[in-house]
Specification:
Elements (H helix, E strand, L loop, with lengths): L11 H17 L4 H5 L4 H7 L4 H5 L16 H4 L6 E5 L5 H10 L4 E6 L2 H14 L4 E5 L12 E7 L8 H11 E14 L9 H5 L6 E2 H10 L3 E10 L5 E9 L3
Helix pairs in contact: 1-7
Length: 252
């Protein structure tokens, strides 16, 4: 991904534009995300991230390859029949489709993404699968096109690290969740002593935007969440970073 991004000290807008460009090419199949294909993609890699092979292998061809993962938040989210779940950075829709099976026909699975090419691909996948309880919305995590208290659960997979303003993401997550709603995401966290270049390329590769466990959990608590915790963690592809499943609850 050497020529996907540029600039050693990007601002928030530069990061956003670079991420849109990279993930548009990922959707088109002309590029791999996160360091030239090192990120976990494909059935085997998703299985390594905690997904059941029979579930992901049954999805349409091409869907799995366009989604990256650093864990499996769905198994921790405890989704129930009739609930509404929101996937932040839904990509080609993999987690939205899996979540739709958990909430059933009386529930809703909403995908949020800011990249037109990904939204087009996810909608095509939705039509191919014939799922009426799935919808996709264009927007950014820092200003979600979602009503106050509209969702029962938020999931996300290796996406929040890409945001230059995580406090806004946590605040918006708290706003759109119902009282008692769950925030369960997989993401990259920074270990003690980790030092990166901070370049736009590292942002796109899910490296530069990683924050520490203390910052992550502290940010959730500052936004009003309770029971913020790291549920599980495994080594990430880069030394000094970890893949973690993070959970928090909006107070009733």
């Amino acid at each position: 991904m050497a020529d996907a991004c540029c600039g050693p000290s990007p601002g928030g807008g530069d990061v956003k534009e670079a991420i849109r460009e990279v993930y548009s090419r990922v959707a088109e199949g002309t590029e791999s995300c996160c360091g030239g294909g090192e990120m976990l993609v494909g059935v085997e890699s998703l299985v390594a991230s905690g997904y059941a092979e029979e579930r992901v292998a049954a999805l349409p061809a091409g869907l799995v390859e366009s989604n990256a993962a650093c864990g499996n938040p769905i198994d921790i989210a405890g989704l129930k029949e009739g609930e509404t779940v929101l996937d932040l950075g839904s990509g080609a829709g993999l987690d939205c489709f899996l979540a739709a099976g958990e909430v059933g026909g009386s529930g809703r699975s909403i995908g949020l993404d800011m990249t037109d090419a990904m939204l087009a691909k996810s909608e095509a996948n939705r039509e191919k699968m014939g799922l009426g309880n799935v919808e996709f919305r264009k927007g950014e995590m820092e200003a979600m096109p979602v009503g106050d208290g509209e969702v029962d659960a938020i999931i996300s997979n290796c996406v929040i690290n890409l945001s230059p303003n995580k406090a806004a993401v946590f605040g918006e997550s708290h706003r759109v969740l119902k009282p008692g709603g769950r925030f369960v995401v997989s993401d990259v966290i920074r270990g003690e002593g980790f030092e990166g270049e901070g370049s736009t390329e590292e942002w796109c590769a899910c490296i530069a935007g990683a924050i520490s466990e203390e910052e992550y959990l502290g940010g959730l608590r500052a936004a009003g969440f309770e029971e913020a915790e790291i549920v599980s963690r495994t080594p990430y592809l880069v030394e000094g970073l970890e893949s973690a499943v993070v959970r928090a609850v909006k107070p009733r």
